[in-house]
Design a protein that fits this description.
Distance between the termini: 48 Å
Number of strands: 5
CATH superfamily of the largest domain: HUPs
Radius of gyration: 22 Å
Bound molecules: tryptophanyl-5'AMP
Largest sheet: 3 strands, parallel
Order of helices and strands: EHEHEHHHHEHEHHHHH
Length: 341
Amino acid sequence: MTRVFSGVKPTGHLTLGNYLGAMRRWTEVDQHRSDAVFCIVDLHALTVDHDPARVRRLSRQGATLLLASGLDPELCTVFLQSHVDEHTRLSYLLECVATDGEMRRMIQYKEKAVRERERGGSVRLSLLTYPVLMAADILAYGADEVPVGDDQAQHVELARDLAVRFNQRYGHTFVVPKVTSPRVAARVMNLQDPTSKMGKSDDSGPGIVYLLDEPDVVRKKVMRAVTDSGQDVVYDREQRPGVTNLLDVLAACTDGNPESLAGVYRSYGALKKDTAEAVVEVLRPVQERHRELCADPAYVEGVLRDGAEKARAMARPTVDTAYRAIGLLPPVPEPALSPGR
Ligand code: TYM
């Protein structure tokens, strides 16, 4: 059976971009047709300046939202990354296979490092090595497929490269994973700046639809979305990024085709109104289930506990194999106690 692995990092409240780019496929497709493993990748939240209490809150909220969005622990495995040591165990081995140049070429590193420096902060070493930990997340589980939005494609490419290199040097150990992307909305853009991604860690609230935004807040954000000069509704990412983003969101929410939808609308106002309502309808069941789950934190904790146990059992054999393959001796077993001692 195909193994699928993906994750989301608790660096901010989850957004419509996370949902349409990744989470919706996990719930609607991946968990039904594969052996699927989903993770709140909390260690990745420590790569930039962070508040420990906030990371704890967002990790809990993220896990609750994964379940609220429809992940069913009977069908898939859901857990917190830091509860399974195999991720960091493997990450170090992969650091011994990756190169410094490869890390410095990662687009997200370059962008985030600039942002950290502009804020007057220093750049954590873990921000540079983060894609190696991400590769470990994926390779530890022998994932065949990694369903992510566009922005993570380069990181999955690196995981592929490291898997191939490790296998060539030390013998076949890892499955070489491939990225899978959604048909539309692989990169949902910020409603106030449609040339940049809608990112949960960004500060620009009005341009970001959060999964837990009230319906009226969603409507307001979508109705105030920056559109382009011109009046006609055209699907053109370069020339009309604002309108194109709305068409993508509407298409993703209604299972439509953004280019055909462009022909249906004569004004930006009508497009915005329908997009806002479509988003509200997509978020409604997630928010309702989230409210129910918040009333039952013991259930969420139980899912995470069982999930971590399952995840450990899945990852351990592969990580142990990698330790042996790269040249590390197995731990010496305890001598058997003689009877009578
Ligand atoms: P993160 O937490 O930034 O995002 C989680 C998922 O949501 C997708 N996504 C988007 N898709 C479309 N439009 C957007 N505006 C948008 N914003 C986010 C992301 O592509 C991602 O699929 N490094 C990863 C987390 C990670 C991971 C992994 C993913 C760590 N280890 C192993 C897969 C496998 C990240 O920062 O995602």
